Amino acid sequence: MAWVCLLLAAGAAGAQVASHAPTLAKPAADPAAAHPQAPMAASSTPVARVNGTVLTEADLVREEYAIFPYARQHNGLPKELEPEIRQGAMQMIIFEELVYQEALRRRMSVPAARMRQAESDFQKTFANPEDYNAFLQSEFHGSRQLLDEKIERSLLIDALLKIEVGSKSRVTPAEVRDYYDQNPDRFRIPESYIFQTISVLVPDHATPSQIKEARRRADDDLRQARSTRSNDEFGLLAERISDDDYRVMEGQHQSTPVSQLPPPIAKALGAMKAGDVSDVVQLGQDYTILRLNAHSPGGEEKFEDVKDKLAKDLERNKTNHLRAALDQRLRQKATIAEP
User: Residue 39: left if φ>0, alpha if ψ -120 to 50, beta else—which one?
Assistant: First the structure.
């Protein structure tokens, strides 16, 4: 189940209270090495106080490793990402503590049957009793009571978030349709082309003789290009003779909207049909030969084709908005201190 094991986050770094459910996630195979960058001496170092409750370096590191799980394989966080990940992790552990305290303030509780099921599900995530006991010893000094407290805490956070976020973030089919109707630009498909190029690039400050030689090359390249009979043959030629960087992809340009094309290129492609090879097209001092592979006239995505993805996007946006609003409300009533 999504909440099982050690209060690790699944959110993204830097998000404002990211889309994240309070999560208990199974630790590494070697529990003692689960967090190699957090020395035991520093694990209880305070990093924040939320209404007097101390959050520790160990809490923060667990969250960092949940945000960036590859840290386990790379012996720590990437230096260039560490500040952003740490900030996101700090936001999340404070948010979860605020939500937990709010659940306690409301005197919410976890039914005994739900706790028993949670404990059973948690134990099933381990391959054998030895692994479970090793984890219990490593993380909770062998105390089942401490583990149960963590599980209960996670379940209370989850329960309050379902009330304040989950139950309010659903969107109806009518809301999805209204959004589609009111935002036509989002579902407009631009006219676009898929094409290949062979280019002759002229150096800056080229001499007249260099410019003349470039044009001669372009005319010769055009004769070769027009002898090709498929995009594969054109691509092999582009790989061999083209000067532009697309030669390493056999001259292939992915679907490109007309609005992103230089006017001379758009004009040339507009006069072609699939399989045609253009004349030499001049762009500044450079020369390009085009092969048109496909043309999409554009249009509008149909509601039936986008409604499922749109509903998920709207729910995700609504969830993020509700989480951020909840975080703001809870912070306004809280005393939060960070070193």
Answer: beta
- Give the whole-angstrom CA distance, residue 25 versus residue 43: 19
**The domain made up of 31-173+314-337 is a member of CATH 1.10.4030.10:** yes
CA distance 175 to 25: 35
Please report where in the chains the tokens 């939500």 appear, as a residue: 99
Domain ranges of the chain: 31-173+314-337, 191-297
**Which positions ≥6 away from 155 have C-beta within 8 Å?**
3, 110, 114, 115, 118
Phi first, then psi, for residue 109 (nearest 5°) are -145, 165
What DSSP state is assigned to residue 277?
B
Contact by Cβ (8 Å): 6, 150? yes
Q: 């062998």: which residue's tokens?
A: 142
Strand partners, 288: 199, 281
Q: What is the pLDDT of residues 222-277, one digit of tens each?
A: 999 999 999 999 999 999 999 999 999 999 999 999 999 999 999 999 999 999 99
- Residue of 185, 214, 195 lying closest to 266 (CA atoms): 195
149-198 pLDDT, tens per residue? 999 999 999 999 999 999 999 999 999 999 999 999 999 999 999 999 99
| CATH code, 191-297 | 3.10.50.40
* Pair 260, 280: CB distance under 8 Å: no
pLDDT of residue 189: 93
Q: Which strand (E) or helix (H) includes residue 299?
A: strand 299-300
Q: How far apart are CA 100 and CA 161, in angstroms?
A: 10
Provide φ and ψ at 12, rounded to 5°: -100, 150
Q: Bigger pLDDT: 71 or 64?
A: 64
- pLDDT (tens digit per residue) in 115-128: 999 999 999 999 99
